[in-house]
Amino acid sequence: MSGDPFHSPAKPALPLAASHTKEELVAALKRNSGNKTRTARQLGMTARQLSYRLTVLGIPGVNFS
């Protein structure tokens, strides 16, 4: 069925490399004094998504203030 939003194929997720770089994430965390919720909101993602990306990229939970 063409045009049916309930039966359209799912769009593939963007690969991690196509989203935010490690440097961009660290810079955003510094701008927000390490506040992950605020940082995630500014980057257009959830705090959970941000936490996952930080883990995958090997960014430790350090003080960004």
List SSEs in N-to-C order. HHH
Task: Please summarize the sheet with the most strands.
Answer: none
Question: In one word, what is the shape?
Answer: elongated
How many DSSP E strands? 0
Fraction of residues in β-strands: under 5%
Percent of residues in helices: 40-55%
Distance between the termini: 52 Å
**Helix-and-strand structural type:** mainly alpha
Task: Give the overall pLDDT as a whole number.
Answer: 80
Uncertain spans: none
Computed Rg: 15 Å
| Oligomeric state | single chain
How many helical stretches? 3
Break the fold down into its secondary structure elements and pairings.
Layout: H1 22-31, H2 36-43, H3 47-57
Helix pairs in contact: 1-2, 2-3
Question: Could you give a short description of this structure?
Answer:
The chain is mostly helical and 65 residues long.
Structural account:
By secondary structure, the protein is mainly alpha-helical. The chain has a domain at 31-60. It has helices at 22-31, 36-43, 47-57. The chain is elongated and about 45 Å long. The N and C termini lie far apart (52 Å). The model has no long low-confidence stretch (mean pLDDT 80).
Keywords:
mainly alpha, elongated, 3 helices, about 60 residues, single chain
